[in-house]
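fwd from M.: "can u put these together and see what the complex looks like"

so here's what she sent:
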Amino acid sequence: MSRLFGKVLGHHRVGRMIGAGGMGEVYEAEDLQLGRQVALKVLPAAIAADEERLIRFTREARILGSLNHPSIVTIFSVDQHEGEHFITMELVEGRTLAACTPPQGLPVARLLDVAQPLADALAAAHERGTVLIDPGGPPSGRVGLRKVLPRLGAPPRLNLMVITHGHFDHVGAASGLRDATGAPIAIHQADAAWLRAGQVVWPKGVTPWGRFARTVFGPVVMPLYRLSKLDPDLLIGDEGMDLEAYGISGRVVHTPGHSPGSVSVVLPSGEAFVGDLAMNGLPFCLRPRFGIFAHQPDRVADSWRKLLDLGAREIYPAHGRPFPTSALVS
Ligand SMILES: [Zn+2]
Ligand SMILES: [Zn+2]
């Protein structure tokens, strides 16, 4: 008997387990409010305890939930109850593809029957397009290109590149990716001049470690970077920019402080990609905090408040791991 059989999670009574894998156990369940059968995917405790994997689990559910296609299971909600994190979704009767496949494989005609809807579903998932935030990379950007290009499909599809700010470590692969995909480059107008001049900029430190790192490593590291001059295609103003036209529900918002033209991308789901406004990892810091370098440190708190007012809950810093807004110590 499975550990959750007969338990009530939220308003769902858990039934028999119908599958299990690395990312969770799947149960039949009854939605007690609507009186219908659903499927519950319950996250294993070990994953739920890992903040980063929990965030990834929630994000995947949201992405799936945003897709509407006959061959993609419908997601009803992402929920938690007494420490159990779970996704409720449409209960699909039938057997898995693995269970239907004989040892010698599927006959070609049957394979085509199965593959066509799968390919359609994948196409539906990809059609929404991709927006890349910070095509960073080392001086030439070649490593950045190698990492990003294979993930954009063939031919590579990229709708837009948003550069959170004009520092050298955030723009390396931008021009190579523009050549390969034709995707326009967007940056706030206040940081655009650095790009146009190919200027390597590193602001002053605002913590003891930041001041030390800037003074000692700055003069060694900065000459290693040679940026080619880059003309951005779109200039973002202080009012920000809507991403709907690029296939993403979300907004670019002006969050100055780390640099005058720093921007963040905020999604309706509460995920915020903040560039260097905040950091969470070595060599910069051990815990989530505001960036240790800034051109305008006095503007950082206002920008953070702006993000919270816009509903930001999960922060994706450019350097380090994602973290919930509640974890930031300033
Ligand atoms: Zn920076
Ligand atoms: Zn940076």
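replying to her w this: The chain has a mean pLDDT of 87.
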